[in-house]
């Protein structure tokens, strides 16, 4: 077992696709398959269940994944300590954020970071912001950008960037009778309006609490992954939704949306960076963290 086989395992564990993993590691698919089998032979267990269509981590593979991530992180640290003879940091850090976060916050952060630390490679992944904290806790990424939950998990560091109001939005023009363009005024009105909400996360928690406080049983039309999809469905007249203002401001559909004046307002998004506290000992992570 060596660090190359560890990194190849990590690539396959994250992509669950031999083609994408081999491209990421700059080797052939046959070499990737051979190296993974050799690693499994060394460990004496199967790390993946695979057939012609799917690749899935076994129970043993999931256990090994934590070890592999820790090992890769420690390898990067010791390599930097042993080989760096200058004041310039070098290596790789991984970031995760939504598409909106990428061009709202990360663009300027990455621009400044690249100027300050040109030798540090940045691995950026985009996806649902509701998964951001899980990516940190699972060790998949070094830093993520997302909204702060009410209760911050132990061992997690948070650094605020901005505040974004959480808005109720409706279609600009009424397209179906039960989806109004004006703010509902009674619990009965609210209960008859189709709602388009996030499946989970900070936004869903806060809107559920808002409905509970007003004794409203909402009519949920759709539960969606990703705030951008909520804006899209609302613009088409499927229902009323709830999204952070930053998402609406950056949406190409903003001209088809009306913001409802709902009182009391939902608690706003406290957006910022997340990292494991122990990861801040990594000089590369600390460099990005301190740039804020």
TrEMBL record:
UniProt key word Metal-binding: no
Domain annotation HTH lysR-type: ranges: 1-58
Single GO molecular function: DNA-binding transcription factor activity
Keywords in alphabetical order: DNA-binding, Transcription, Transcription regulation
Pfam families tied to this protein: HTH_1, LysR_substrate
Assigned protein family: Belongs to the LysR transcriptional regulatory family.
Protein name according to UniProt: LysR family transcriptional regulator
Organism in which the protein naturally occurs: Marinomonas rhizomae
